[in-house]
Amino acid sequence: MCILLIAVDRLIDWPLLLLGNRDEFHARATDAAQPWRSAPDCVGGRDRVAGGGWLMQRNDGRVAAVTNLRSGLPAQSPRSRGALVRDFVVGNQPVREYAEGVLAHFDEYGPFNLVLGDASGCWLIDGTTAKLRRLPRGVHVISNGAIDVHWPKVERLRSRFESALARGVHDDAALLALLADTTLPADDELPDTGVGLERERLLAPIFIRGEHYGTRASSLVMRHADGSVFFRERSFGPNAVVEDEVYWECLEIEGEWRLG
After folding, report:
1. 8 Å CB contact between 53 and 39
2. Neighbours of 173 (CB within 10 A)
3. Between helices 95-104 and 81-90, what is the axis angle to 10°?
């Protein structure tokens, strides 16, 4: 993911909600969100190049998502960040135990922020400090920078989400629509992450529209208090052309995923 909102105990009856956009080169081969052939109790998109994911959820509510950290430097690393998502959701290690293993090999991955959730709550490996921390009740938004950075797109998504809740709007279609915002901040509001002004402009909106690089998927993951889990994803091609939309649901913890 390249921008990710996490709402912890913010909605009545919905202890956890994740809402985010994945930005990537359009030429990178990708499978849309679906149950994984090797792990049919897990739903998420799949990167065909490295075999990992960016946002995945299991039918018992176990969930993970990753964002990269932008430094302006090439990120050549022996391990795929997408494997961090896949291995946690498919596996059964407690969050702390899994995080300890990740941190032991921290430098073998490209820079990242990693969200991990299970029955114990929602946790974050902060890529700028290489530390694990529990996310408290509230709304948290992370992108490709430090956790506490106030980039315009981060603050805009947080504000749009809170405004929607205040208006009583929290159906899945309306929440996904929050991710379609292409508003471009003024140049003096843009961060300087070492990629140059032209690229800062390209990456500044919540939704990135581009011919070669842009938002590939907008995703919404929700876990209900009764154990039901939901996964909705809209996929895009070059220049923001909608290619597909899927809605997966599992209404019982021990049940199977089905198309909604």
Report:
1. no
2. 12
3. 150
Task: Using alpha carbons, list the distances in angstroms from residue 65 to 68, 70, 106, 238.
Answer: 10, 16, 16, 23
Cα dihedral 161, 112, 199, 244 in deg (nearest 10): -60
Q: How far is CA 170 from CA 11, 100, 191, 259, in A?
A: 9, 35, 30, 21
Strand partners, 249: 230, 258
Amino acid of residue 147: I
Count of CB atoms within 10 A of residue 149's CB? 14
Cβ–Cβ < 8 Å for 32, 235: yes
Distance CA(93)–CA(98), nearest Å, equals: 6
As a whole number of angstroms, the distance between CA 168 and CA 60 comes to 27
The answer to whether residues 207 and 240 touch, using CB atoms and an 8 Å cutoff, is yes
Residue 256: its pLDDT value, please?
Answer: 86
| CA 208 to chain CA centroid, nearest Å | 15
10-residue stretch averages of pLDDT, the chain, 260 residues long? 95 95 96 94 96 96 94 70 97 97 94 94 95 96 89 96 92 94 95 88 95 97 94 97 95 80
pTM, rounded to two decimals = 0.95
**68 vs 22: CA distance, rounded Å:** 10
